[in-house]
Design brief:
This protein is α+β, with helices and mostly antiparallel strands. The protein contains twelve helices and ten strands. A hairpin with a 2-residue loop joins strand 2 and strand 3. The structure holds flavin-adenine dinucleotide.
Amino acid sequence: MEFGLTEEHQQIRDEVRRFAENEIVPNAEEYDTAETFPHDIVDEAAEMGLVGASIPIEYGGAGYSTLESVIIAEELFSHDPGIALSIMACSFGTEAIREFGTEDQKERFLEPVAAGEKISGAAISEPDTGSDVSSVSTRAEKDGDEWVINGTKMWITNGSVGDFFVVLCETDPDAEGRYNGFSQLVVEADRDGFSSEKITGKMGIRASDTAELVLDDVRVPEENLIGTRDAAFMQQMYFFDETRTGVAAQGLGIAKGALEASLDYAQEREQFGKSISEFQAIQHKLADMATKTEAARNLTYKAAWNVDQGNDITKLASMAKEYASRVAVDVADEAVQIHGGAGYVNDFPVERFYRDSKITQIYEGTTEIQKNIIARELLD
Ligand SMILES: Cc1cc2nc3c(=O)[nH]c(=O)nc-3n(C[C@H](O)[C@H](O)[C@H](O)COP(=O)(O)OP(=O)(O)OC[C@H]3O[C@@H](n4cnc5c(N)ncnc54)[C@H](O)[C@@H]3O)c2cc1C
């Protein structure tokens, strides 16, 4: 059993940390307050190969493994989750093209994302469809060589800045079985009938763009169908282990960032004539925060390693996602407490970590859904 990271892993971590300290930290509060997408930082991240990190090298990506992507996410999210998500989500949805796309689709869609020229998104959720993905009602009907798409997608990351979206559509309403009859289609944002409206006022990850998409008789060619018609669910299940592990890494990063900020603050702040880090109550908080963060790291890295080995890890990926997101929320909460009043305003990053942490328990399958999966797997 080998728990250590290789020298190459550590180099990736160090480079990402330098980038985050120099480019992200000085701008984090500004983008959060303005709720604007950090195009300039994303462009710089693309030059470093951090955008589309898992896109294969032959299509211009860095071809990072899941473990390497986890290390990158942990580091970026430990500095600012909103900007980190803006960077890492630039390639949302492209996993489907990477695995099931045609050569033409890979060249058309993966290459520009890896080059930082285009931004993608994954459009699954709808106003009436969240946890129960099988109730998706966006409809795609075949008309000659084209698909005609109608529906509304909700909460779509990159919705108002993205160039194309992998859209989950119902293509055969009469299909037998709850999970049959759905397909994934690429929809470019400049198609007639496509519109988006940015959602503002989010609790956290405010630099990251979120929008509602309306598809009104949008026509896309047959060549935009990804993989097998009517088999989108089977295709999507293929990535859950990877994508849930990715959100676990986000939670881990937030916990790490909140812990590091608390260690600094606890040693600087004095009350009753001594550093608050000398109070056992504060020491115990720090000890608990560090232990939980380390446990989340072990679960997340183990899940990532298994994904890279090609192992089926449905239960482990859900455990990592559920646990690391809970740790993010708990550790960020204690971080604010350690900062006292100073933690309640945006002078310190822990206020942002506290707000940003919550989303990791919601997207990519809520905490409750992860627990349903873990229990199902245990009882199977
Ligand atoms: C900032 C942000 C970004 C997002 N980005 C994307 C994106 O890029 N693409 C995309 O497609 N979606 C995206 N989402 C949507 C996200 O995936 C959904 O919000 C999430 O899946 C939950 O769905 P819902 O909001 O409809 O909640 P609901 O499904 O309505 O759930 C409400 C509550 O009921 C619980 N619940 C539901 N079903 C069960 C059950 N069977 N057992 C126990 N409890 C249950 C849930 O856990 C939750 O607590 C994003 C959301 C946000 C807020």
